[in-house]
Known about the structure:
The structure holds 2 protein chains of 2 kinds. Chain A is mostly helical. In chain A, about 75% of the residues lie in helices and about 0% in strands. The radius of gyration of chain A is 21 Å and the shape is globular. The relative contact order of chain B is 0.15. At the A-B interface, helix 4 and helix 5 of A face helix 8, helix 9 and helix 10 of B.
Amino acid sequence: MSFNWFKYSSPASFYGISHSIIKAASGIAIILCIVGLYWGFAKTPDILTDQKEYYRILFIHVPAAWMSMWLYVTLVFWAVTGLIFNTRLSYMMAAATAPTGALFAFLTIWTGAFWGKTSWGVWWDWDPRMTSMLILLFIYIGYIALQNSIADTRRADRASALLALVGVICIPVIYLSINCPDPYQCAALHQQSSLKQIEKNILIAMFIMLFATWAYSFAIITHRLRSIILEREKRTQWAQDIVRDKA
Amino acid sequence: MLKRDLLLAVRNYNDVLIGLFFFIVVVALIPISLNESTQILPRLAPGLVWIAALLSSILSLARLFEEDHADGSLDLILSSGSVYQCVLAKVAAHWLVTGLPLTLISPLIGLAYNLHGEQLSTLFMSLLVGTPVLSCIGAIGAALTTGLRSGSSIIALIVLPLNIPVMVYGAAAVRSSINSPDNVMTYLLLLTAMLIIAVVFAPIATAAALKISND
Lengths: 247, 215
């Protein structure tokens, strides 16, 4: 049996299945979000080490931070796929991913500011992790700005794909340069992951929320993708049919 | 190619002077606006001089490939077999007219910021090694935006975040020359490593970007 891997790389055939993807993913997102928030508020202890109730912001903060990084990886994956196979849909995927990634980076910083205010007493501190997240947001913004400022779609796609690729090479260097500006202090600055010490219920709620944000991203990106497909394929018969049926 | 670009730049020496004076004005504005005593200036100097160098390098980036794009010589460059060398030559010319003058004048700036001796030479060395990296990375941004109407403003948005590591280590070299002179060499070597990597890989990305822009 042979499977045609490229079948759904055509915008027309993808558009056909996209509606059921959106339905399933947004359903999962809503259910997981309710379960995760319930678990996070009802089943978890009121105190995490020396932090009181306000530590619960982590159920939004941590999934948002992970998603913003993960979405950049998927963005680059689609950009590179587009550059290699020259498939239009891959570029559209990358373009649809960027705003959600930027949104999560912004959410991370925003919720982080609230957390910082309650926990450390400041809205913002030039802590390495915060600075790296800020720069990730800048890179997302640069990608979106470049994409939007080029009128020719084909050129816009390929130029921003190259920028995303350059960005992914630079990100580790940027991360290291902020995290470890002094080569003599690297060891002292290294922070151990605190995942293992966290109470089990907090971890469960966090991972449920992670999957909720993941499903949300899946739904919203597919949704945005549908608009991009219709906009770019407006000269084709099938896209015109769809728009006419809707109207 | 390098010769041609340099010749163009020297004939238009106005551009060189604009970049240089932009750097000087920015560096001079900061002590004026802060109105601080000369005591804290040495502590501010490393970061401020490097930010000014970064901005002044970006100022002239928009024109890097613009004229070649307008008069069609970019087509010739891309259809010739030696895109890599041509890009490298353009980057070298950009550095020679923006980065180098700024590096040469930096000891004077350092004096105005109350630095002395070893610190001045570190400032000079860090800019000497670091500013070519700014030109290399900047060329990618310039190539991606060649021929765009909003090109010059978007270059800054693209290039500034990517240049952060250069600025961090450049400023760290100068800072450590004030606090712990033993570490200066490490930072300069790190900058040199960045320079080598940038010179080897950035022109490849720039060439690819030019091909996309000139399709």
